[in-house]
Amino acid sequence: MKKITQFENQKVLVLGLARSGEAAARLLSQLGAIVTVNDSKPFDENPMAQSLLEEGIKVICGNHPLELLDENFALMVKNPGIRYDNPMVEKALDKGIPVITEVELAYLVSEAPIIGITGSNGKTTTTTMIADVLNAGGKHALLSGNIGFPASEVVKTATKDDTLVMELSSFQLMGVRAFHPRMAVITNLMPTHIDYHGSFENYVAAKWHIQDQMTADDYLILNANQDLAKTLAQKTQATVVFFSTKEKVDGAYLEHGFLCFKGEKVMEASHLGIPGSHNIENALATIAVAKLSGIENNVIVDTLSAFGGVKHRLQKLGSINGVLFYNDSKSTNILATQKALSGFDNSKVILIAGGLDRGNEFDDLVGDIKGLKHMVILGESAPRVKRAADKASVAYCDASDVKDAAIRAFELASEGDVVLLSPANASWDMYPNFEVRGDEFIAAFEGLKGAQHD
């Protein structure tokens, strides 16, 4: 970590805790700043705030008092989830107080070069793929950012011989100024988080901050399947490298079943460890980063062939008596389940679906579930999911929860089949979040596997 002095004896307000705020507060304190933390959660319910107070950091909990900003702060480090129309943020900006997110803070002290990954879909999978390939190639990559490892925590022990592979959200990128990755990937850009940004144009602008400081010596990897990316490519100083599943580009592309880079075949697409057309895009982006980083083809092939996915995101759990199990609990909407199904032969799939009833029908899913071997349906939305199954002429049965669904699906499966949890629904009718739902599916798989060996 660089020893910088710009925060020494400077008053800094950390607005909002969670893991990134806690990490930022500790880093700033270590850099000599006079830190105040302000979090909405009451102090007696806030173990993070209690821990920071024990370390001598001032904490104010329970609300966001506007008068706090009269204390002449030199900087605000904002939790990415707090919107810019929050009164505290608005007042800070009105007073001329710079507002950043903790990834900017991490960049300022980082000795390690940064590879930044953003986009609407596929960020976590692509980030993990890239880190795995770089590590297999001896580059010592460290995961950080939105993937669950706060950058301002990871950066403390990172050296110039490491590489920070950083997943970045639009919320985080709105708060960067000097941030300068040596490589950046934008996986794709779809209308999302419009409630936060106000428009798709604002959302794209937030994502585009990733390349603000990049130069011709840096590589910006863009998805040529999207016309928007081709337009944006004209507006950067970085050297653009495209990836595409639809055309041959000066970069990474799919051609005759092979994943290629600049005229060279790297690996067969069918050898990827996880299915789905979207994962071919993720792999192509990874191959672009890997080749530009000097990784050998055999390392790329071995790593991507063995890649089993990110937990709860089309995660390959393994097989029982020739029946493959995939955990895609993160699929909380129809589009995500459509993408998951695109990687399989429907005639061999038993799909587990259903969850929170948001009032929407599942007509958009009908074409994608046609030909399924069977469905196991659960949750509040079961009647609506069943209507879609009826329209698709797919047989189905009921399950009481995910464990029951996994057992029933396995009973229906034969060697060569796939049991796929891809609910197309949020989990909150039965589970606190999709992770708990996915963990129950993993436990059910392990239980079934163990029972076969008893």
From TrEMBL:
Its main location: cytoplasm. Pathway: Cell wall biogenesis; peptidoglycan biosynthesis. Its EC number is 6.3.2.9. InterPro entries: Mur-like_cat_sf (IPR036565), Mur_ligase_C (IPR004101), Mur_ligase_C_dom_sf (IPR036615), Mur_ligase_cen (IPR013221), MurD (IPR005762). It catalyses: UDP-N-acetyl-alpha-D-muramoyl-L-alanine + D-glutamate + ATP = UDP-N-acetyl-alpha-D-muramoyl-L-alanyl-D-glutamate + ADP + phosphate + H(+). PANTHER family: UDP-N-ACETYLMURAMOYLALANINE--D-GLUTAMATE LIGASE. NCBIfam families: murD (TIGR01087). This is UDP-N-acetylmuramoylalanine--D-glutamate ligase.
